[in-house]
Amino acid sequence: MNYKIDEFAKQVGGSLRLTSLIISRARQIVRKAPIFVETKIDDPVQIAFLELMQKKIKLGDGNVPTQVLESKKAEKQL
Known about the structure:
Blueprint: H1 2-12, H2 15-30, H3 44-53, E1 57-59, E2 65-67, H4 72-75
Antiparallel strand pairs: 1-2
Helix pairs in contact: 1-2, 2-3
């Protein structure tokens, strides 16, 4: 599992950015943002991590998590 976390940290620019991404996304989920994975988990942090693992979110230009979709309209949902 540590290998995956290290790989995710490298992909987003380091462990601090990874933490920021997950926390920011968890806050969005708490504020009732759409969830991009199928899960029975109700912990926003775990959901955010699952979304990242399944490559459903990425760190956007403003260091805000965005959904990975072709449609710009879908990104505005966040």
